[in-house]
Amino acid sequence: MSDLNEVKAAARKAGFARRKLAFEARPPGAAGRLSEVLAGYRGVPLSGYMPIRTEIDPLPAMAEATAHGPVGVPVIQGAGQALRFSRWVPEGPLRDGPFGAKVPLEDDYFDPEILIVPLVAFDAKGGRLGYGGGFYDRTLEGLRAKRATLAIGFAFDAQEADGLPLESTDQPLDMLVTESRVLSFR
Question: Which InterPro entries match (predicted)?
Answer without folding.
Answer: FTHF_cligase, FTHF_cligase-like_sf, NagB/RpiA_transferase-like
